[in-house]
Design a protein that fits this description.
By secondary structure, this protein is of the alpha/beta class. It has one domain (2-9, 17-136): Rossmann fold, CATH 3.40.50. It contains 5 helices and 5 strands. It is globular. The two termini are 23 Å apart.
Length: 138
């Protein structure tokens, strides 16, 4: 997802983030820091300390029923502790059997947008979503 946002080449081979990636980007004419945390259990201890004071937290989840329970638990935790606006990006919408963004939003209880990180044609949409949500969280 970070490659899509940053305008880099996007691989059709999906690999989870391992550890932490930090990038700078320009959204709405403002320099923003984008922190991409691995979702694996062994990296979660980092999240709370790094995310304090953020204006917007974006949870990226696979659009599968299997992934949804874990994402719901994470979402509830961050909504309570961070105090920042939390939204979800339902990734892998292009795969057969994917839950719709609306189905995921209903289960998570937060604003959710559908996306496919490997579709370069959605790059502009991803940027517009983040710009809109950043503006509405100010």
């Amino acid at each position: 997802m970070l490659s899509l946002l940053q305008g880099r080449d996007v691989s059709t081979k999906t690999e989870p983030t391992v550890g932490l990636e930090i990038e700078n980007s320009i959204l709405n004419g403002k320099k923003v820091n984008v922190w991409d945390f691995g979702g694996q259990q062994r990296y979660r201890f980092m999240w709370q300390d790094f995310l304090k004071g953020t204006a917007l937290t974006v949870l990226i989840c696979d659009s599968t029923e299997k992934n949804l329970d874990q994402t719901k638990e994470i979402c509830a935790k961050f909504s309570r502790r961070l105090g920042s606006k939390v939204i979800a990006i339902a990734n892998k919408q292009d795969l057969p059997g994917a839950l719709s963004a609306e189905q995921i939003q209903k289960k998570l209880g937060i604003t959710t947008y559908g996306m496919s990180a490997i579709r370069v044609d959605l790059r502009g949409r991803m940027r517009r979503i983040l710009e809109y949500e950043m503006n509405s969280s100010e």
